């Protein structure tokens, strides 16, 4: 028997998308999508949210990439703070800068692969503004 880590990432991601789709099917639909039954109560079938597995997968990838981007930006700020404080040697500064640039490039590649832009990762938090700085 193979462990989950031995399966290809696409298979694991598909399983997560299926599990999320099952979970979403238990949520009630938006009120405007629910047709009341004659007794004024919604029917079970009408209350189910119909989520497309491919949409769930893309949204999950978007959420994961958003978290990774937030962490990348936090690491970048911390690195700049350490450079400003003079805590790093010149070699450490160079290595840190190269690592952060490579991580940013990889994020752009992943966004391209999933049909997202870096701007798509900036979640709107309503009155609080956006999650990531512009």
Note the run of SSEs as H and E.
HHHH
Global morphology: globular
Strand content: under 5%
Helix content: 55-70%
Distance between the termini: 47 Å
The counted number of beta strands is 0
Which class best fits the helix and strand makeup?
Answer: mainly alpha
Rg computed from alpha carbons, rounded to a whole number of angstroms: 21 Å
Which stretches of 5+ consecutive residues score pLDDT under 50? Answer: 27-35, 40-49
User: Quick one: biggest sheet?
Assistant: none
- Give the count of helical stretches: 4
pLDDT averaged residue by residue: 75
Task: Characterise the protein shown here.
With 134 residues, this protein is mainly alpha-helical. It has a domain at 53-126. It is built from four helices and no strands. It has helices spanning 9-24, 44-47, 53-85, 90-113. Helix 3 (53-85) runs antiparallel to helix 4. It is globular and about 50 Å long. The protein starts with 8 loop residues before the first helix and ends in a 21-residue tail after the last helix. Mean pLDDT is 75; it is low at 27-35 and 40-49. This is Gas vesicle protein K. Pfam families: GvpK. Keywords: Gas vesicle. Belongs to the gas vesicle GvpK family.
